[in-house]
Amino acid sequence: KMAADTPVDILQKVLENEILQSTKVVEEHLDAEIQKLDQMDEDELERLKQRRLEALKKTQQQKQEWLSKGHGEYREIPSERDFFQEVKESKNVVCHFYRETTFRCQIMDKHLTVLAKKHIETKFLKLNAEKSPFLCERLRIKVIPTLALIKDGKTQDYVVGFTDLGNTDDFTTETLEWRLGCADVINYSGNLMDPPFQSQKKYGTSFTKLDKKTIRGKIYDSDSDDD
């Protein structure tokens, strides 16, 4: 008399069957695609080639348009007036409000320089907070560094200090990229549900408590020791 299958055996058989089925579906799909290509006549292949070329040309044109608007590099803009012009002509803008004496702004600069080259679909700018009191007031910027994340001319989100970046000065470029991806201000190809800093080793990184205090609208450095 044969022993009855245990629940584990049954589960294994079901899984094996599932895998076989899905492999079969994939193979059938591939066979159909190959058959479709085999059956295509010269004209159809030519049309397919043309469509591909047009798509490539369009991508290239879009790239050129972005570059002509100052995308692809991380730039400083001289004044508040320039800010409005720059924001008006690009769909996605990241603007870093910085101060020369603030050490953390230099850390931010380093990462933004890399991301500007990688994500040419977005314009990356920096503006001296001390030279733009009207904008800082209007955008309620109290802590330096702050990134204003702008879509279609409207400020949608802010990255204030390094709080969202693992609360450390040693955050990676990937972590900032993930945060900008969360705001949909860049085309992010990673998994938004899996922040890069969660997989980083917690050892050896200098976790510093960030200060977010503001007194009567005065702008504070996120790395200031003032109480």
Secondary structure layout:
Elements: H1 7-39, H2 42-68, E1 74-76, H3 80-88, E2 92-98, H4 103-118, E3 123-128, H5 133-138, E4 143-144, E5 146-151, E6 154-160, H6 173-182, H7 196-199, E7 220-221
Parallel strand pairs: 1-3, 2-3, 4-7
Antiparallel strand pairs: 2-5, 5-6
Walkthrough of the structure:
This is Thioredoxin domain-containing protein 9. Significantly diminishes the chaperonin TCP1 complex ATPase activity, thus negatively impacts protein folding, including that of actin or tubulin. It holds the Pfam family Thioredoxin. With 227 residues, the protein is an alpha/beta fold. It has a domain at 73-183: Glutaredoxin, CATH 3.40.30. Helices cover 46% and strands 15% of the residues. It is built from 7 helices and 7 strands; from the N terminus they run ααβαβαβαβββααβ. It has a 5-stranded mixed β-sheet with strand order 1-3-2-5-6. It has a two-stranded parallel sheet with strand order 4-7. The protein is flat, with a radius of gyration of 26 Å. The chain starts with 6 loop residues before the first helix and ends in a 6-residue tail after the last strand.
